[in-house]
Design brief:
single chain; 377 residues; mainly alpha; 17 helices; 5 strands
Length: 377
Amino acid sequence: MRDGGGRVWLEPSGTAGASGSRGEAMGGLMVARAARRAVLLPTMLTFGVIVASGGLLLMIQKGMLAEVDTLNGRTYGARSRGSGGAQAGVNTEEDWKWSEDPDYQIIQEIRNRTLQSVCKHKTMPHSILDLTSAQRRNLLKHILVNDEYKFLYCYVPKVACSNWKRVIKVLNGALDNVHVQIKMDHKNDLVFLGDLKNSEIKYRLKHYYKFLFVRDPMERLLSAYRNKFGEIEAYQRRYGMEIVRRYRKNVGQSRGDDVTFTEFLQYLVDEDVETMNEHWMPIYNLCQPCAVTYDYIGSYERLQSDARHVLQRVGAPRSVEFPQRQAWYKPITKETLHYYLCKVPQGLLNELLPKYILDFSLYAYPFPNVTDKYCRH
């Protein structure tokens, strides 16, 4: 069911009589899975391009192709063009300090080269006009606009987007500072690219500084799972109960707050990425990095330093700093992710990975290691 904003909501299954037999429901799932396998080939062909470009980049990293030009110290983001932003052409001492981390420069190099290799493929979108109307609508509602500092930010849920919205509200004068103790309103006092006229959208996409932040795909999914199904009653009712009805023979007294991580991942396998909730929709589908040429792609793993770089790049006042994580925030450690992933059947992960293959490959994140040897430790 779609609401007025075009979003897709899952309808409750209702009683057994209303929804049909469990056998019919499972039959429908099997048909859907077969259809998805039929369209998997283009994704895997794209992955072949990624693997080939990744192999080249590893050779560059190891110095095997010394004659190949690499990014200079002033280029940090994917396909950075130095366009847009009040300070787009300025390189300060802080820029050079930031560029001294060779490991991170390699990651940015991999992202640059892989994006170039994948996005130039003829089957990939080369502008927002190449997207379907649904894809374009979804993209434009995830890009925030700041006209004073001339930047566009594609927000990705579970990648510090609440803090970025807080920063943007400070820059546009809606908040006094980033430390104001107030519940974040994710809609008011924010301008979305989709709110503008077509000519205004075109101008800003061409001239403004554009950035997004990414995160390890499995870590992001685990963060969404723990937050939405462990803390948010609305998600437990809407999505938790749907998952319980789909994958359990006996719903029992469940209120949707006891969904397991394995059940959640099975649900993702059976969902269409184009209509997923934004908290677990792949980053690629949210921000469309082939249709939009982002000047910078930051990492959740280097959130503070990357955020400082962006704020400096757009010419934000020095008094505006990216917020520190709240004291109550419980970060997902490698050990935590290891604990959850090792409880997931290997076959299920194999089914899930193709849906997030571009998030792993374009942004240089390793595939999860769930081998028996690894999980025994």
